[in-house]
## 1
Amino acid sequence: MRHSKIAGIGKYLPEKVTTNDDLSKVMETTDEWIQERTGIKERRYGKKHEETTTTMGARAAAIAIERAGIQKEDIDFIIFATLSPDYYFPGCGVLVQRELGITHKEVGALDIRNQCSGFVYALSIADQFVKTGMYKNVLVIGAEMHSMGLDFTTRGRNVTVIFGDGAGAVVLQPSDDDSQILTTKLHADGTHAEKLAYINPGSHGGYHSKRLGEEVDYGYPDDDTYGGIFLTQHMMDNAQTYPNMEGQFVFKLAVQKFPEVIMEALTEQGLKPSDINMLIPHQANLRISQFVQRKMGLRDDQVWNNIQKYGNTTAASVPIALCEAYEAGAIKKGDLVCLAAFGSGFTWGSALIRW
């Protein structure tokens, strides 16, 4: 079986910089409060009515395609990971195909809904496609435009201050040397799915809250009236159409699963943490990354963090950070690179790459 490699990589960050001080003008928060809890100083927001998750993904993809030394017409398959798609459906995969102008080839497009670990999941799927010989040039994109769906009031600050917009992309090709994806590890546990979720609008009709013994009023009609239960006025009036997160629960689980899934990959390959040249963790919270770094016994120059500048860009955070580290010369040929992510679902995963 042949191996795949990252042949090209690109990123895109919107021009608009939103600082913590900017957010303090619309909600009760401070720069000190945000930095102490998350490490974030600023984040980027896309231009409303001009930029979308798809257009940002296309910008990153164009760079990755050029660096891979191919033309966009050479792409055989597209995998797009996001939690903030342009539409509820169809997904961004077909939209980025249209944006890039490669619809005439009618290549397949797959959408991944694994939130923060979406890019790692997408990379693993692309790796299998290349390994088996099914496709030669697979485009993998992680992109988010969170700013269009956040609650910019004091009520929503615990979530809103964390997230930013951006996109990253890679092109996977068959490897003809030692550069290759060595292994990927994927896991999930849906037991506590609602601890970090964007519940409404949705088709659940209140089922899950009843099943879990939580009497949450979403404003659904009590009878069998047709329609009107996907999104209700009650949801909008009571701010139930925004993401919610139980921060301490997520933090405790993340600092457990991050090291576990990294060690799983290293152990399989007969490697140890000190062999890692660069760890690219999902940029969820600087405190989580720092905890994982200490747990793994890694130096500062072995871990890449950029959440301070970009916030949490969920599915885009790993490829953005990977691209930034590559462009800065912090990743060289032959280096052992580890990608790791944990997020909503809960899902988590890792990938070991020989650059």
Note: The radius of gyration is 20 Å.
## 2
Amino acid sequence: MVRSPRGILGVVHLPAMPGDPNAEGDFDAMVAHAVADAQALRDGGVDGIVVENFGSVPFTKGDASCPLPPHQVAAITRAVLAVRDRFDGPIGVNCLRNDAEAALGIAAATGAQFIRVNVHVGAYVTDQGLIEGNAFATLRRRAALAPSVAILADVLVKHATPLAPVSPEDATKDTLERGLADGVIVTGRATGAPVDADLLRTVGSAAAEAPVYIGSGLTQQGADTLAPLCDGAIIGTAFKRDGQVRAPVDADRVRALCDVVRPRLRG
């Protein structure tokens, strides 16, 4: 298993870019947005940063039939390189909705240390339609391009419902033992929604020695209950000004939440 980052991973939500329905600026403005948020995350003391194309709604499935368009892959690459120039810790890539191939390509080209895959195994009904995991191709592409890049994969991911019922235990074990992910992520039902403590506890038990991350909704109020059940947390919304997902990252909020969460993480 490839070594996964631990601790608190802040998210750089890229704004809509040219070609997206909500685009307001050019590619240079998108990169400037990424740099500003990354610097606030760095100043607030995160352990790692995830760069994702959050503003590019509606998202493509990201599979072979409908991959990310080339200009988005190029733009995300620019953003990751800009973040890397200003941050020395681990950097990850998430190509929404589920383009693991593009994420691996960007990681290989930029030196990023990990990727996030929403649907790594199984099949889920989502607002993009039916998304099927493709661990077979993802693991082989990693071996060819970036063998040291960790794969963090969601279990029962937000904004999605499994095509057939599956228990959290089985979903976790399939992701790790059959999909060979390096760590698993547990989310609430939607962006910014809190994680259920019982679900997190169940996934943690099934994951055994593999790292487990909270992937949404962690706040200071939930830290005492949730942080001791995981090895790391991916935090986006709670780091933003006034806790608003489309606002800029606030370094003071980052620092305050890191101070509460970090000492409570297990391990």
Note: The first helix runs from residue 27 to 44.
## 3
Amino acid sequence: MRVSRAFLAHFSWLGGPGPLDSSEMQIDVWCKTDKGLRRESNQDSFLINRDLGLFVVADGMGGHSGGEVASSMAVEISEEVVRGLKPRGHGARETVLKIYEESCHRIYDRAAQQAPQLSGMGTTMVMLYMAGQSMFVGNVGDSRAYLFRKPHLWQLTEDHSLLNEQLRAGLVREDQIRQFVGRNVITRSVGYERDVMADVLERPLKPGDCFLLCSDGLSGLVTDAKIAEILNTTPLDQVVDKCVEQALANGGDDNVTVLFLAVT
């Protein structure tokens, strides 16, 4: 199921035949997106596909409707690629890389060849893909994937952003982040150029794992410490609501999307 815009979704299922090959784990997933308090439209998109074990958050960028077009295309192409490759037995890592390759090519080509007014559009894209007993995490851009095992929260993905490069180089301190002029500049995106390098990591899937995907409308306004506090003090079915509420309370400068998946 592909969903986007102002929407709250929740799905629950027991493991069995399909991407999650376990009869002893239950997966619950919730997602909420909001345009925020200062944007006229929502350029975030997300995907929840229970049958494919595929979950995606994309944050579009580009003038006019470019960002919305790019993020929407990215989630649709992701689903299409998995549907096409899965029956042919392609490996999970190869599938995730193919998602980014195909999405990047088609978004770039649409802007360059079919819709010049969309030139320069692109999108971040972070995803979870379940295969067997593993969770594969893919990322391009500064949307994030976190792993939560009570009481600890870890950022699994690395931001592809100018700010992160400056932090790693020691040119910006943590206490200077709010004042950093280029904090919204990303260094990799899907579709801005025709090719992009995606990060992919694999983690064994275990009961007690919780994964949180979000656009920077959350991570840019709510600290990791606060996200961890919400996760430690909030019932699972209220996490996405609380995270979005906190982002809005902190200014709501951007579209915000939060997808939360719990393995029990």
Note: The two ends are 22 Å apart (CA to CA).
## 4
Amino acid sequence: MDYPELRLDLINDTITKGSMLFSGIDIGSNAVRLLFANVFETKGGPIAEKASLLRIPIRLGLDVFTFGRISKQKVEDLAKTLKAFKMLIDVYKPVSYLAAATSAMREADNSTEVLDYVRSESGLKIDLIDGISEANIISSFSNHLINKNYTRTLYIDVGGGSTEMSILDGKDFIASNSFKIGTLRLLADAVDNNEWDAMHKWLNQFKKDFGQMNVIGSGGNINKITKLYGHAYNNVVSLDQLNFAYKQLNSMTLSERIDKMGLRPDRADVIVPAAKIFIKVLKWTDLKVVTAPKVGLADGLVLTQYHQLKASTI
């Protein structure tokens, strides 16, 4: 991915101040996110600190996983959202930005025309990325402050349309894969059993590491589950806590999840299938704990730009 509109006039100034501001836009199946983050260089490597995050629950996946295409109304909603995001980028003036569309856009029959339209309406350069690229970008955002007990780490990002996984050995990529198993897709009863089998088979390649890997989870649902049921002080949730969360939330009506648990309507329905996905993966791999450091694709896009900029100035 190439980063557009590189602000060369700001680079020297931001370097002297010790940080640079970047922006990432994640056009996901459930929501569209705009992140502004300052990247700092530290002894342990670069870290990104959120300056501002805006999330709009457009839910492109509801259309795509049910009807195979994005409706005219959602196209208009997306165009208006991205137009507003572009205005904010113009005001914030980051060094650069990256915008990436994921699972729902990948699978929509009308994705080409939708992307052409929203690009022309918003003035944003938008990339359509595949699942492997998405997995690699997300797992590249490895916060050096996360305590790791093992050499190998399994990254799991659960979205509305897909689940991306990566295995790292230290800082080295071992493998990545993307599966058509997501929260909105499960709600629409649009997940093929063969996809679960494919996920299980892929994980079994690393059987010798089962029970002895770090697990880092990303996505709004695992963050919320960790806050409600896990240990919020270190962003950790155990398999037992995940099982309890799933059973309790699944026994509630949607209204009860909103009223009793304080969940947003667009979180209250997808949080249950998200818990199901994490539980399956942990059981298959004999792993007991997930660390949820509150990162996602937008964070990875920010760090990608920093690494690209750093490489181009060497």
Note: The first helix runs from residue 8 to 16.
